[in-house]
Every structure is written in C-alpha cells, then in structure tokens.
Amino acid sequence: MILIAAENVTVKRGGRTILKEVSFQAYAGEFVAVLGPNGAGKSTLLKVLAGLLKPSSGQVMLGAKKLSSFSLRQLAAQRAYLPQNPHLEWSISVERLVALGLTPRLPATGGLPERLSLAVTKALGQCDLYDKRAQTATTLSGGEFARAMLARAVVSDPGLLIVDEPITGLDPRHAMQSMQLLSDIARSGTLVIASLHDLTLAARYPSRVIVLVDGSVAGDTDLLTEELIHRAFGVKVLVTGQGDSRALTILSTSEKSALSVENPA
User: Fold this and answer.
1) Given the DSSP bridges, would you call strands 2-13 and 16-27 parallel, antiparallel or unpaired?
2) What pTM, to 2 d.p., does this model score?
3) CATH architecture of the region 2-260
C-alpha cells in the first residue's frame, strides 16, 4: 500500500531550481532516510511532502488523494512534521510542549484526557525526558530541546512522520536512541521520512535511503553503498560490518589519512 508518492516534483524559488522532477513512492512501515550534501534540497523536499510548500510543478499524493486537497488541520491529524532548527519562545513545561503534538486530537473543552496524558508520558520516556517533564522547555540544553521536539512529533502516533535533521546536536547515546526510536516507530506501521547528515547512522537504521544531489534523486536503495556515497558527497569511504553494527570510515582524497566516524557525533 502506497502511503505517499511524489510525482515529478519540481520546486523553483528566486529563479533557482531547488528540486528537479523528484519522483518516488513510500509505504507504511518504511524508515526512509533522505541524504545529500548541503543545498541538495532535502529540507525543501520534506516541506513539500509535509504539505507546507507547494511545488512549482508535479504533485504529491497522500493515499488516494492529492496532498493539496487536504486542509492544514486535516494534514495535522494524519502526519507529524518536525522542522530543522525548531524554536520556542513560550515559557511552558516540557510536558506541555510535548502535549502540543496532540493539538489536532484535543477536545474543544476540558483538560487532557487520560489516554492522551498517557501518550505524553510514553513519548517523554521514549526520548529520555521523563525526569524533565516539569522543567521549563526554554531552559533545556540544545540536545534536550531537540529530544523534546522529537517527543512532540511522535506523541500523536501519526501514520506519517516527517523529521528534518532530528539528531542534530545530540550526543552519541541519544543520537543512537533517537534513530532506534524512529526505526521502532516504522516497524509499528508508521511511514518515517527523515533527513540526515550522519552517514554511519543512515547506514545502520533506515530501511531505505534516498539520496539527493543538486535537487535530483541520485539514488534510491535499501543499502547505502560506498559507490553511492562517493557519487553524492565526493569522498571515498570504507563500509564495514552489517546491520546495526555497520560503520563508515571516510578516506581523505589523497587516501593518506582517514577520519573514522564509527562513533556517531
């Protein structure tokens, strides 16, 4: 069953083409990583898939309907979106911040129903924030805030979860925990689409990788390979291990030295 499909999506802004006829289909239960060098169009693609940016040409289908036919409220009830570098200026608790992810499902009056309160507690635990639930969200560290925003995105158990650079600023343990959480969410039946820069984690956890280069799809595969990394990023790498023990060593262009990225940063 196809959950979302991009059909020849092109985005032009300020006289520049950011996405060029991007097409692919994604299914419930997949964890799709979107990779590519800076400026490749990753964030733009995610905004288009989330229904927040209208393509210049082409279209996106969500189920059997055009994405453009959904209202923002209808979209919010079906998909969750976590932007890159989110901000918060309200002095609200972490618990309340996470609960904002349930806004489309909240009753018009009254407090938070028990079943939704349990969902908030679960999301806090999944993102290792339970002990900070009463803390003011604006006092969190950068990594803690990133995890709180991820908790807000997953709390509603959406059918489609789109996250832009969800592990930026996280320490290695929490980066790996967050990737494992996204993988587990996908295995439960949600379609997860995430843009990533960490190639080692992208090689370990997602079930599929889409690589963008200059706004076009350079690769769509279930296994991130040395050849594809070289084609997309212009570096030579050595891939070792299998499954969640895969690791990459990025070689210098002269191949006289190497930078190991086995431990994610």
Assistant:
1) antiparallel
2) 0.89
3) 3-Layer(aba) Sandwich (3.40)
